Structure formats: C-alpha cells, structure tokens
Amino acid sequence: MKWFRDTYLSLRFFILMGIVIVLFLLGYWIDALQGLAPISLTATVLLTLVDIILLYHKAIKLVCYRKCAKVLSLGTENSITLNIRSLTPFPLHLSIIDELPEELENRTFRISQLFSRLEKKEIQYTIYPTSRGLYHFGHTLFFIRSFIGLAERKYTAGSPTSVSVYPSLILMKNFELKSFQSLARFYGIKKLRKIGHSYEFEQIKNYVRGDDIRSINWKATGRRNEIMVNQYEDEKSQQVYCIIDKSRSMRLPFNGLTLLDHSINTALVVSNTALQKEDKAGLILYSNSINRLIKAEKGNKQLRIILDALYNESDYFLESNMELLYQTIRHKITVRSLFFLFTNFESFQSVERVIPYLRKINKFHLLVVVFFENTEVTEFALQEPLTTEEVYQQTVAKKLLLEKGRIVQELKKYGIQSILTRPENLPLNTINKYLELKSRGMI
Questions:
Q1: DSSP state of 76
Q2: Is residue 436 within 8 Å of residue 394, measured between CB atoms?
Q3: Strands 366-372 and 337-342
Q4: What distance in Å separates the CA atoms of residue 163 and residue 68, rounded to the nearest whole number?
Q5: One digit per residue, pLDDT tens: the chain, 443 residues?
Q6: What single DSSP character describes residue 423?
Q7: Could you tell me the CATH superfamily of domain 62-166?
Q8: Which of 226, 269, 344, 389 has a Cα at 20 to 30 A from 170?
Q9: pTM exceeding 0.85
C-alpha cells in the first residue's frame, strides 16, 4: 500500500471534479448536458488513472545530495545547496520540500522546478539559525507531476544529516579582513591616526615627510649624514578578555537573537581579531557564579577553545554577581588586561549597584562596558502619539532613553570606557573600540 500513501490528488483534479458536479446539476434543467456529465466524469477518472500509472513508471529515478558547511553560523544567512539529477527519460514537474530542522519552524518551504529529460540542477536556499546546537535535516521530498497534472507522487531521496550551529564563523571571517588598517576605511570602520608611538621598537629607517620628528635617531643621523628615524610597531602579546553576562537581563530578543547570542557572536569576532593582531585572547562567562574562565593565550588552538566554550553556553535566569566577578579577576588575572564586559542595563539604579566593582576593576585593568540600546523603545519614542495613552507611554520611553545616556555619563565620570550600541551594530562598534584603544596605546 506504499503507492497509495505516496499518491496525492492535485488541485487540477478537484477543479475538473467541480466542473463535473456542475454539469450534473445543470443536467436537471438542460437536457443536452445530461449525457455530457457522465462522459466528463469517466474521462476525468480515466485520465487520473493514466496519470498515476505514468507517475509510477519504472524509468522515473531522482538522485539528490544536500551540500552545506560542516558548521553553520548563528544569526547569519547560511547557504544550503541541493544537487539534483533526474535520470528520467522524459520531463517532470517537481515540487521540492527539504525536511528542515524543527528549530527553524519553517512550514512553508517549497521549491517548484521543471526538469527536462536527464537534467542536472543545483538549487540553493538559505536558512537563518537563531539558536546554537545540533540541527537535524531529514530527507528531501519530491512531489512529481506529469504533463497531465491530475495526481502527484511523493518521491523520497537524499539522506538525513546533522549539522552543528556555532557562533557566527561567517561574521568572524568578514571582520577578520576589515579589522586591519589597510581595509579599515571601508564598511564604516574608522581609521585612526596614531599620536606618538607604542613601546616596541621595529627598525631605523630614512625620514620621510609625515614622520614624527620626535622619533629622530640623532646618533644614526650623525653616522649616515641624513635624517634617520626610529620606527615602532604596535605593542603585542597584550591580554584581551571578553566577559559575558549570562543573567536574565541578557535574554531580551532582538532580530531573532537574544542579547546573549549577539554578545557571543561579537566575543568570537573580538577574540579572533585580537589573535590576528598577535595579542592574547581570553574569555569569562558569569552569572550568579563564574561559569567559565579561559586564560588569555595566543594561537589558533586558543580560538578553537573559545569557540567550543561559546557553543556550549546558555543563558541563566538568576541575577549576575558582580562582586564575585571582581574577586575572580583580582585573584586570577594579575597582568593588566583589556576587558570587554558585555552586559545590559535597563535603569540607572542597576548601574549604581555595580559601579563600585566596575571602578575597582578599571583601577587595575582597562575596562570597556558594552551595553545595549533598546531599539523597540527608541522606535516607539520617535513615533507621533495619537492618543493620550500613547503620550504617557512615549514619555516613559523617552525617560528610559535618557537614562541610557545618563549611564554613559556616569561611567565616563569614573574614567570607565563604554559602548552603547544597537544589537545589530555590536560587532562593528566593539571592533572599532578595540582598534581605537590599540592605536592610542592605552592597553
């Protein structure tokens, strides 16, 4: 009975049957239609049977192979390719349904294609994962129609596969090139002019216009009888830590991802950029306890360790413990480091509770507090109010926006660097801040 379960009647069949029913109804009043209605019914049934026989012809054979990356990226469009080959000696109309992972919640996926005899095609589509974990793809289903088009046959091809969704590797690779100053003028990344120089000597070279005259090497100038200057390079092997708050304040969703997922993607980008700049990258994940501490190190192996740690983490429902974070940093990290603290403040009172600990961390290290602009509140505050209730609501929304600016000023008052950003601009603004601090020699 498998052929019975895999056979479906098409919309064209039901349209023809509707016409047959109308002919039978009109036959009560129009004698000429009384003979036409049974003939139409018989013809429709016969055509349907012929169509089903054609659909189960032995020559019909389809081969399908699903091709995708070994690892998919979170919060990014990932390309999936279906390599389909028809080994059938006559044309086929195909409706293709790839059994997507249930996490995508896509119940309208369908691609219609016409395959000529013995044709091979590549069909691409994209998916947008919004959670980390293992995604299971099923079979690829083909609903085959012949030129008659009164019935469809379900044909199963391909094989189930499982793919892991990691923090966005695509985003990391995109920013890998943009983070270097030769390309930093593109894509909105600022190219900053260095003032002075860092502390690592590179070489002595001939003076050219634009060189800092304070770098003139007078001894070399006297020996060569021409102006020579010392050239310096960025100080390397500095420690850069990404600290991610996993408390319930980071569960707010924006653009399909939580603030925690946005922070995880950005932490991967920052860690990769730091390693490319020959700095040491580290990671701290905390909530009411310290969930993970990865000491800052160099090398590609370190990036893999950080990637695996970010892949396996999830958010918590408890409040974060800033005192415990400070104590951990004080005892575990003794070398002056750059900290990017990804957290979220929705009120000024929440900052007041943690500002003493932030000041203590900033005393021994360079701290950058990264928190988020509530884009929905911002867009609502900019709308024109239509009712008295909306006037009150927009007043509250504007008060919340002012509090965000007040938080920035409060942090600045104590010499703490901060980034207030929209979630979608988080990687760009964080990399800009890293390059800015790096170029100014503040680390």
A1: S
A2: no
A3: parallel
A4: 9
A5: 677 888 999 999 999 999 999 999 988 888 777 788 889 999 999 999 999 999 998 999 999 999 999 999 999 999 999 999 999 988 889 999 999 998 887 878 899 999 998 899 999 999 999 899 999 999 999 999 988 989 999 999 989 999 999 999 888 988 876 655 444 443 444 444 444 444 556 688 888 887 878 888 888 888 888 898 887 765 567 899 999 999 888 888 888 889 999 999 999 999 999 998 889 999 999 988 999 999 999 988 999 999 999 998 876 777 889 999 999 999 999 889 999 999 998 888 889 999 999 999 999 999 999 999 888 887 777 788 778 888 888 888 888 888 888 999 999 999 999 999 999 999 999 999 998 888 777 77
A6: G
A7: Immunoglobulins (2.60.40.10)
A8: 344
A9: no
- What residues does each domain of the chain span? 2-55, 62-166, 171-193+235-439, 200-233
Phi and psi at 207, nearest 5°, equal: -70, 135
CB 432 within 8 A of CB 190: yes
Q: Rounded distance, CA 207 to CA 211, Å?
A: 7
- Among 424, 363, 373, 369, residue whose Cα is nearest residue 401: 373
Q: Is 109 helix (H, G, I), strand (E, B) or coil?
A: coil
CB 313 within 8 A of CB 292: yes
**DSSP class per residue in 364-397:** HSEEEEEEE--HHHHHHHTSPP-SHHHHHHHHHH
Answer whether CATH 3.40.50.410 is correct for domain 171-193+235-439.
yes
Distance between CA 188 and CA 355 in Å, rounded? 32
210 backbone dihedrals φ, ψ, rounded to 5° = 105, -15
Task: Report helix, strand and coil shares of the chain as percent, to nearest 5.
Answer: 40, 30, 30
Q: What beta strand segments (E) does 105-150 contain?
A: 111-115, 120-127, 133-137, 140-145
